[in-house]
Structures are given as structure tokens and as C-alpha cells.
Amino acid sequence: MAPSFDDGNSLFNFVVRDGNGVKGMVDSGLSTVPQAYMQPPIERIDKDRARKHGHPPIDLSKLGGPEHNEVAKQIVRAAENLGFFQVVNHGVPVDLLESLKDTAHDFFSLPAEKKAVYRDDVSPTPLVKYGTSFVPQKEKALEWKDYISMQYTNDAEALQHWPEEIRDVSLEYLRTSMSMVRKLLQVLLENLGVKPEDSMIDVLVDKKMVNMNYYPTCPNPDLTVGVGRHSDMGTLTILLQDGIGGLYVKIEDDSEFGKKGEWVEIPPVPSALVINVGDMVQVLSNGKYKSAEHRVRTTRTKSRVSIPIFTMPNATAKIAPLPEVVEKDGNTLYKEFVLADYMKNFFSNAHDGKKSLDFAKINSA
Ligand code: OGA
Ligand code: NI
Predict the structure, then answer these.
(1) What tens digit of pLDDT does each residue of 309-349 get?
(2) Cβ of residue 298 lying under 6 Å from some atom of ligand 1
(3) What are the residues whose beta carbons fall under 8 Å from the beta carbon of 8, sequence distance 6 or more?
(4) What keywords is this UniProt entry annotated with (predicted)?
(5) 227 lines ligand 1 (CB under 6 A)
(6) DSSP string, 113-159
(7) Contact at 8 Å (CB) between 94 and 277?
(8) Spacing, Cα 86 to ligand 2 middle (Å)
(9) What pTM was computed for the model?
(10) Is 232 in the pocket of ligand 1 (CB under 6 A)?
């Protein structure tokens, strides 16, 4: 039986501890958003004030062809300014994208008990985690989102431990994405004056995670957020979003993409994937590439799914701005750190824009 959602404790127990998620709460019949999900006014999303990002998706089939340099420039410009871009002809089959979205909907429609076995403290495997919001124990207002996260180590372990309902499409998505990710990194690194060896790229994408995010319908979308303002901590993120929309990116500096401080929506484009720069690429590039602050709105009439792949170095990797870049720049903005320490800081604090990067900043005020 669903509890009273006006009582913070019973809500927390039902949604978080017992693994019913936001979806379980919505399914129990909800006409208004519980207090625990109400964002302070400053965090609410005024969708009428955001513009749509108008740049067409970048055609990756042109990399390596006669238009290589032009396409490489588009990638670099997007990474330097907005930190976000969309790509087509990315090598991931379009029918697989459709299956992924359908599979995500099917998975979150499973009874709570089926998903709740993967809750953090009880999951039979450290590779798989099902949860809701980002760090519910730490957040002043919860995010209107449930998710499942699958860490990739190797095929055999994925086949053994990932939930069987979503395992095969997720693995295929990962397999068919990685050559694109490597090509993008190659372009970004070459532009920094680095001749990237395969082994260097291996290090940058050593760890991979496939997530499925589920944003249930919300009775008061203006009061809530699907995901609060954050940047992604890793190397590059590949994101499949469905047709609902509501992904916003903050412009860090005035540029061709808009004015500093504005939010632009990354509109759904059929068969495209969204790419965004993570904190590690911002650090390695000594701040040239922007790990963009982004967030997601909720919607009233249809649930939304998105399926990101996060790539990052191994937890034991030492990260610092690349020596080639520091030499050219004559200064370094970030100190060297061990990724595990960065991650510990990232995952133990509620989302707060790009504050995660303060961990690595030299002279952070
Ligand atoms: C994320 C994220 C965006 C989306 O999972 O880190 O930013 O559209 N997702 O769901
Ligand atoms: Ni993100």
C-alpha cells in the first residue's frame, strides 16, 4: 500500500528504501507533487525562456574523407564553447536506438520487486545499481527520476550480471558506440597538439557505464526537475534521448551558441546521439573544452527515457592537464589527482552545477 507522501519519512522509505521509485509513487495516483520534490524557485526550469540549440547534428561519416577538417572543426568548436553537440552517422544502428528506448520503458514497467533487487545496498553485483534521484540522502529536494546503472568490465561479466531484460541491447549499444567515441577523442586531442596513441585513448575510456534513466510523468513539471544542474564527471558521455525533449545546457561564455548564463535546449533529433564533454576532458585540456552544466525538465503527459553511456579513466588513473597544453598555455588550472578521489567527491555531494570541478582547481576561491 502506498503511504502518505506528505510525510517525508514514509515517502523516503517507499520511494528510496523500498525501491518503488518515483514511478511507484506516480503509479499509486498522485495529483500534486510532494514537498520533498519541490525545488526552490531558483532551481525551477522556465522552459519558455530557453532557446533551442539550432546547430544541425554533425555528420560523422565525413571523418576521414575529403571534408574531414571541416567536420573536425565543428566538433572542436562545439566542445570549446557549449560542451554539447549532436551527431548522426555515428555507427550505432538506428533500429538499435529504437529498441533501447522500448527496452528502457519495458524495464521500468516491471514490478518494483524486480528492479529493487539492484538497490545499492542489496544488489547481488557491484556492477549494477538501481536507484532514484542522485544522492537522496544529501539532497534538499529530490530529482524526479529513477535509473539503472550498469558498469562494464568485460562481456562475460556483463552477460552474467546485467539484468537480462536490458543486457543484450545495452551491450550492443556500448559495442557499436565505442569506435565513434575514440574518433571524437582523437579529433579533440589532435587539436590540442597531442598525437594520441591508441593506448592513451584506451586509458581515457577504460571504464564504461550504460545507464537507463526514467522520468515519470509529473503533475507539476514547473516545480520539479528530472535532473538538477550538474556536469558529467567522466571523459565523454554519449546520450540517447527520446522525442520528448527537456534537456537544457547552460552557456558558459558568450559565443556563437548564445549568451553567457542562458540555457539552451538540445532538441530531440531522430536517429541522432547527443555527445557531451565531461569533467576529465575539461581538466586534460586545461579548461579549453567545456564540461557543460546541464539539467532535465519533467513533463506532465508522457514519461521520458534517456540512455547515456559514460566513459572515464580507471579509478587508479592520475589525471592532470596534458603537458603539451600546459606548456603552450604557460599555466595550469588544475592539479594532479587520482580519479578515485575525484569520484568520491562527485558521488557524495548533491548536484550543484560545475562545483565538482572545484576539487581539481588550483587556487579555487
Ligand atoms: C545524466 C544526464 C540527461 C538526460 O544522466 O547525466 O544528464 O537527458 N542525463 O537524461
Ligand atoms: Ni549528465
Answers:
(1) 999 999 999 999 999 999 999 999 999 999 999 999 999 99
(2) no
(3) 35, 36
(4) Dioxygenase, Iron, Metal-binding, Oxidoreductase
(5) yes
(6) HHHHTTBTTT-SSTTEEEEESS-TTT-SS--S-EEEEEEES-HHHHH
(7) no
(8) 15
(9) 0.96
(10) yes
Looking at residue 365, its pLDDT comes to 45
Cβ 177 vs Cβ 238: under 8 Å: yes
pLDDT band at 4 (very low <50, low <70, confident <90, very high): confident
What is the reported pLDDT for 9? 87
Q: Of all protein residues, whose CA lies closest to atom 10 belonging to ligand 1?
A: 306
Residues in the chain: 365
> What pLDDT does residue 196 have?
86
Q: 195: exposed, middle or buried (C-beta count within 10 Å: 0-12, 13-18, 19+)? A: exposed
Whether 207 contacts 316, CB under 8 Å = no
3-class SS shares of the chain: helix, strand, coil, % to 5: 35, 20, 40
CB 263 within 8 A of CB 246: no
**Secondary structure (DSSP) of 246-301:** -EEEE--S-BTTB-TT-EEE----TT-EEEEE-HHHHHHTTTSS----EEE---SS
- Identify the CA nearest to 278 among candidates 357, 345, 347: 357
**Coil, helix or strand for 4?**
coil
User: Cβ(305)–Cβ(242) under 8 Å?
Assistant: yes
Residues 179-204, mean pLDDT to the nearest whole number? 95
List the domains of the chain with CATH numbers.
Answer: 8-359 (2.60.120.330)
Kindly give, in sequence order, each residue whose CB lies less than 8 Å from that of residue 293, ignoring residues fewer than 6 positions away.
229, 230, 231, 249, 250, 252, 353, 354
